[in-house]
Specification:
2 helices, mainly beta, globular
């Protein structure tokens, strides 16, 4: 599987960080869907659990949780991820990617849902000085 960025947010502290994932760790995300939970080991967070919340492909098209499969689809949107209407009732046909993770995904967004025993700063290699 191709390498991609994983952007992980910590809802408790409000911080985010990015990790480049490739090789065997990238395979842990293969065929997963938005909303699935993955072990944090894949991004260097031993003992943590992360939930996949979104992402985008290499062209910047967003992943939508309400579109099945990993393929591109043209959907008529009235709002939400991929389209922000400028006036009431506005609709637009937009090309988006389905909720499954595939080789075309360039970035995955995730959040921490279960914390481990080790402090997050220690796992990230960031010490407060």
């Amino acid at each position: 599987m191709a390498p991609f960025q994983v952007v992980v947010s910590d809802p408790d502290s409000g911080r985010t960080f990015q990790r480049e994932v490739d090789g065997q760790d990238a395979n842990r995300f293969a065929s997963r869907a938005l909303g699935d939970e993955v072990d944090g080991d894949a991004v260097g967070l031993d003992g943590y659990t992360i939930e996949l919340t979104g992402g985008s492909d290499d062209a910047g098209r967003p992943l939508r949780a309400d579109v099945d499969g990993p393929d591109l689809k043209e959907v008529l949107l009235t709002g939400g991820v991929g389209f922000e209407p400028e006036r009431d009732g506005e609709r637009k046909r937009v090309t988006v990617r389905g909720r499954e993770i595939s080789d075309a995904v360039a970035q995955i967004n995730a959040k921490i849902v279960e914390s481990g025993d080790t402090d997050l700063d220690e796992l990230l290699g960031e010490d407060d000085e």
